[in-house]
Amino acid sequence: MQLTHIDDHGQAAMVDVADKAITIREARAEAYVEMKPETLQLVTQNQLKKGDVLAVARIAGIQAAKKTSDLIPLCHPLALSKVSVDFEIDVEHSRIWVLSYCKLAGQTGVEMEALAAASIAALTIIDMCKAVDQDMVVAQLCVTHKSGGRRGTYQRASKGDNHE
């Protein structure tokens, strides 16, 4: 297997996607923010001074997906047709799962955009809650699904399949 972002001289390079077919490409990613139970309760009851944590995190995640090529140097700027960020509250483990989805019709995949959305939404949750909980952790950031392109479909066991 050869890395795609390395040229013939071993230098970092942007992949040329001009000859790739335009296909519908989708990706899903996830991560979770673990926090104290008291913090999770404040979030779910919308009682934090900074405002609606999940609404702000959702917008931040969507913005991050749209700005991925500005953040990751060799990513192509993409005309995303859909970005969504959703949350699942896991009271038992005191976690908020962040689930992102990105879609486009294009010549390159949207995995990095989905990862950017999930990670920035998770970081925004921390930013919104850090005044009451400094022990929060972001974990298990990963792509759970991708489709479209030459390599076809990839499916990883997702939140509902592999967690305690």
UniProtKB/TrEMBL annotation:
It catalyses: (8S)-3',8-cyclo-7,8-dihydroguanosine 5'-triphosphate = cyclic pyranopterin phosphate + diphosphate. PANTHER family: CYCLIC PYRANOPTERIN MONOPHOSPHATE SYNTHASE (PTHR22960:SF29), MOLYBDOPTERIN COFACTOR SYNTHESIS PROTEIN A (PTHR22960). Catalyzes the conversion of (8S)-3',8-cyclo-7,8-dihydroguanosine 5'-triphosphate to cyclic pyranopterin monophosphate (cPMP). The gene is moaC. One of its GO terms (molecular function) is cyclic pyranopterin monophosphate synthase activity. Residues 14-149 form the Molybdopterin cofactor biosynthesis C (MoaC) domain. It is an enzyme of class 4 (lyase). The active site is at 127. Homohexamer; trimer of dimers. Substrate binds at residues 74-76, 112-113. Belongs to the MoaC family. SUPFAM superfamilies: Molybdenum cofactor biosynthesis protein C, MoaC. It holds the Pfam family MoaC. Keywords: Lyase, Molybdenum cofactor biosynthesis. Coiled coil: none annotated. Its EC number is 4.6.1.17. Pathway: Cofactor biosynthesis; molybdopterin biosynthesis. The lineage of its organism: Bacteria, Pseudomonadati, Pseudomonadota, Gammaproteobacteria, Alteromonadales. InterPro entries: MoaC, MoaC_bact/euk, MoaC_sf, MoCo_biosynth_MoaA/MoaC, Mopterin_CF_biosynth-C_dom. This is Cyclic pyranopterin monophosphate synthase.
